[in-house]
Amino acid sequence: DAGVTQSPTHLIKTRGQQVTLRCSPKSGHDTVSWYQQALGQGPQFIFQYYEEEERQRGNFPDRFSGHQFPNYSSELNVNALLLGDSALYLCASSLGLRPSYEQYFGPGTRLTVT
Amino acid sequence: DAKTTQPNSMESNEEEPVHLPCNHSTISGTDYIHWYRQLPSQGPEYVIHGLTSNVNNRMASLAIAEDRKSSTLILHRATLRDAAVYYCILRHNAGGTSYGKLTFGQGTILTVHP
Description:
Structural class of chain A: mainly beta
Oligomer: heterodimer
Shape of chain A: globular
Number of helices of chain B: 0
Strand content of chain B: 35-45%
Strand content of chain A: over 45%
Helix content of chain A: under 10%
Shape of chain B: globular
Number of strands of chain A: 11
Largest sheet of chain A: 7 strands, mixed
Number of strands of chain B: 9
Largest sheet of chain B: 5 strands, mixed
Radius of gyration of chain B: 14 Å
Distance between the termini of chain B: 38 Å
Structural class of chain B: mainly beta
Largest interface: A-B, 30 and 27 residues
């Protein structure tokens, strides 16, 4: 049973460019959340998708956008990259929205902005 | 969101029990208490969760105070593979759904000595 997968593993971009990160949820899961983790910090919630709609959003600018596809996979897009966007981007999946449900995390995509 | 307070770091010896404390004095009546851990260079991993009663699973035990203002994650026999950052997280239950947001703090860095 495949867990949460993310691609690419690593990425280097230049300031001002745009980037797309991809996530496939754990088999049977229909909900995907994205987190940003700066070095030495805990993950920060970006947004969550369920039934192809953004259900909740953290304190991130509109440069961060996402999408969920009918097969439940998801993309995170970041426009006009800043040096401060350098971080580990984590995707997590779960079955539905209930607070009693655990989230399963992928290994993350390490984004470096130069 | 209700906040949690954890010690910055703790140390343990291999094969000894470890008790990781978490204070959450502003917890509301329907908040679930979740624990996640993050091993070096990996995404967070679900450990355990509970609402009011103590919980056990194959990884750990969760002891919840009677007033629910604190909880303790118990690793019964620490191994070197348990060295990680442990996060105590409250998940708000808003009418049965919480839209999945996990609010991570700084967590507790657990060091296990051989």
